[in-house]
Amino acid sequence: MMDDSTIVYAEAEAGTQTELINPNEIAALAKKPDNNKPPKDDERKYLWVIFASIVVLALFAAVILVGVQIHNHRQQQLAQEHARCESAMTELDKKAKQYEDLRSGDGAAAGAISDIQVADSGTVKLLDEQLKAQAPAATSCAVSSVDQYDARIQQIHDYEEWYDAHMRSLQEAVNGVNDSKQLKEVEEATATLDDTLREAQTTLDLTRGQVADEATWNRLSDLYTKAKQAEEGGKLDEITSVEQDIKTAIGDVNASRDKKIADDERKAREDAQKKAQAEADRRKAENQSNRDGDRNTNQNNGGNKENDRR
User: Fold this and answer.
1) Which tops the pLDDT comparison, 58 or 198?
2) What whole-number distance in Å separates Cα of residue 218 and Cα of residue 197?
3) pLDDT tens for residues 198-228?
4) CB-based burial of residue 275 (10 Å sphere; 0-12 exposed, 13-18 middle, 19+ buried)?
5) What residues form DSSP beta bridges with 19?
6) How many Å from the N-terminal Cα to the C-terminal Cα in the chain?
7) Model confidence over 270-293: pLDDT tens digits?
8) Where are the domains of the chain?
9) How far, in Å, CA of 308 to CA of 310, rounded?
C-alpha cells in the first residue's frame, strides 16, 4: 500500500518504468532559487524595459509635439503670407480700377478725336497704341505654400508696376491729344480773329468821326487792342470771346455810322427845305414890295396929273 503523498505516474508506452513523484518535493523545488538566473537580473531587465518604453513614448510624444508645432508654425506663416498677399491684392485692385477708369473715361473721350482735329496726328497714333495695351491677367491668393505666396506676391508687385507705368503713359497720351486738339483750335480761332481784326481795322478807319455815337467807335478800338493781347496769350476762351465781342462792336459801329448818315441826310433835307422856304419867303416879300412900290408910284403919278389939270 502506497503513501497518500505518493502519486504514481505510468507511461502509456510499453517498456517504460513507473515513476513515483512526491508533491511536497515538487513544491520544494518550486521554492528553490534558480542558480542560472538570479532575481536581481530580472528586476534590472524589467526596469530597462520600462525605461526604454518610457523613452520611446517620450520620443514619440516629442515627435508629435514637434510635428504639431511645425504644423501650427506653418499655418501661422501661411496666414501671415495670405494676409500680406490680400493686402497686395487690394492695392492691385485699386490701381487696376484707376487704370480702367482712366481708359474708359478720359482715354475713350480722347480716343474719339480724329487726326484731322489735332495739330499733330502723331499724338492720336500714340494714344491708340496705349488704349490697345493688354492689361495683366487676373490673379488671386489661392495658393498653398509659403514659396507660392512669395511668388504670387512678387507677381502682384510686377502687375502693380505695370499699372503704374501704363497709368503714366496713358495719361501722357491723353494729355498729348487734348493739348494738340486745343492747339489746333487756337490756331483756327486765331486765324478767324485775324480776319475779324482786319475787318475791325477797316471799319475804324472808315468810320472815324462818322458815327452818331462816339462811344461805339471807342469800344471797338479798345476791343481791337484787347484782341491783340488775347492772340499773344494764346488762350482759346479769351480769343473766342473777344472775337465775338469785336463782331458785335463792328455791327454797332456800322449801325451808328448808318444812323449818322441818315441823320445827316435828314438834316440836309431839312436845311434845304428851310433854305428853299426862306428863299420863297424872300421872293414873296420882294414881289410884295415891288407891287407895293408900283402901286405907290401909280398913285403919285395920278396926283401929279390931277395937279396939272388944275
Assistant:
1) 198
2) 15
3) 999 999 999 999 999 999 999 999 999 999 9
4) exposed
5) 9
6) 255
7) 999 999 989 888 888 888 777 766
8) 78-182, 208-304
9) 5
Helical spans, DSSP H, in the chain: 23-31, 39-102, 108-111, 121-131, 146-207, 214-233, 236-309
Instruction: Supply 55's cell numbers.
Output: 523613452
Cell of 178: 487734348
pTM above threshold 0.70:
no
SS3 label, residue 107: helix
For cell 530597462, what's the residue? 48
User: In sequence order, what are the beta bridge partners of 20?
Assistant: 8
Residue type, 97: K
Q: Quick one: cell of 84?
A: 500680406
Which residues, other chains included, contact 256 with Cβ-Cβ below 8 Å and sequence gap of 6+? 207, 211, 212, 213, 216, 217
- Which residues lie closer than 8 Å to 160 by C-beta, 6 or more apart? 88, 91, 92, 95
Parallel/antiparallel/unpaired status of strands 19-21 and 7-9: antiparallel
Cell output for 154: 512678387
CB 228 within 8 A of CB 197: yes
